[in-house]
Amino acid sequence: MLDSWELKEDGSHISSIFGTRSKWLSTELNTRATMDNLTYLVKRRERYDNGVYIQDGGAFPLEETCSKVTCPVLCINGAAAVEFFDGIGMAMTTQFEEAIGFFPNKPRVIVLEPPGSSINMLNEMPMNSI
């Protein structure tokens, strides 16, 4: 697979990544997101060279996969992220509740909503988070 992302001699590839989020993220958070995105893009070249391709998130069989999980699952729901995505019509509250429902074989799910948080994640090894 051909990687469409290009390194630029003048470094503008970095400012281009930063610019995609600069209108809606703080400078600090955008810097962190830019670093993550840059790392992903650089490593993507290595993955492609080795024949490794990451599946599109929408194509991943989340419900089927989650239904097979039997260990405890820790769900951390970022209250500020939920408010933001609900506000722009992405129905995060509904999506999160639906995703939690994908774990029918779970012995226990812990849902935390830290005030002012903006991160959502699922961790199927909650003892590592304590």
Which terms would index this structure?
5 helices, 3 strands, three-stranded mixed sheet, mainly alpha, flat, 130 residues, single chain, 42% helix
Can you characterise this structure?
By secondary structure, this protein is mostly helical. It is about 40% helix and about 10% strand. It contains 5 helices and 3 strands. It starts with 11 loop residues before the first helix and ends in a 7-residue tail after the last strand.
Run of helices and strands: HHHEHHEE
Mean pLDDT across all residues, rounded? 77
Regions with pLDDT < 50 over 5+ consecutive residues? none
Shape: flat
| Percent of residues in helices | 40-55%
- The secondary-structure class comes to mainly alpha
| Total strands | 3
Write the layout of secondary structure elements.
Elements lengths: L11 H8 L7 H23 L12 H5 L6 E4 L2 H9 L4 H9 L8 E4 L8 E3 L7
Parallel strand pairs: 1-2
Antiparallel strand pairs: 1-3
Short description:
By secondary structure, the chain is mostly helical. It has five helices and three strands, in the order αααβααββ.
